[in-house]
Design goal:
With 144 residues, the chain is of the alpha/beta class.
Length: 144
């Protein structure tokens, strides 16, 4: 099963990915981790897209996405989960990542990106602040 966990920075994607990976014994690939698959970006891209395609009906793979570009790589059959959080929570979490400092340009970037993924087609929507990973796991189990 291929699961794409999609959402903005600091929305709760990685936390959800850890819970799903533990339950489904899945490999997790985040962001551009796929670049490590080969020496050149173009070769790594080809290998990773094949890996995504193979995971649809093969070994469990979770791909954590925070940019719109990789959405085009997701093959048919991918389980798409949108993870959301309110803007203030995202800012608070990002501030914590930056040891209490949130520079104005970073804050503006977060504000501009907020809601980027909201209009997409998803199999599940998950609240990255108050969501229950066990409930989502049960819903995913029903799909199997």
């Amino acid at each position: 099963m291929l699961i794409a966990i999609i959402g903005e920075n600091c929305s709760g994607k990685s936390t959800l990915a850890k819970a799903l990976a533990a339950h489904f014994s899945s490999e997790v690939v985040s962001g551009k981790d796929w670049l490590r698959m080969a020496k050149s970006e173009s070769e790594a891209s080809v290998l990773f897209r094949k890996k995504l395609q193979d995971a649809v009906c093969g070994a469990n793979l979770i791909y954590v996405i925070s940019e719109t570009g990789p959405l085009a790589w997701l093959p048919e059959g991918t389980v798409r989960i949108l993870v959301t959080a309110d803007l203030e929570t995202i800012k608070q979490r990002f501030r914590a990542r930056l040891h209490g400092n949130l520079p104005a340009p970073v804050e503006r970037m977060l504000e501009q990106k907020h809601g980027t993924f909201d209009d997409g087609q998803y199999d599940f929507r998950y609240d990255g602040v108050n969501g229950d990973p066990e409930a989502l796991i049960a819903a995913l189990e029903m799909r199997l």
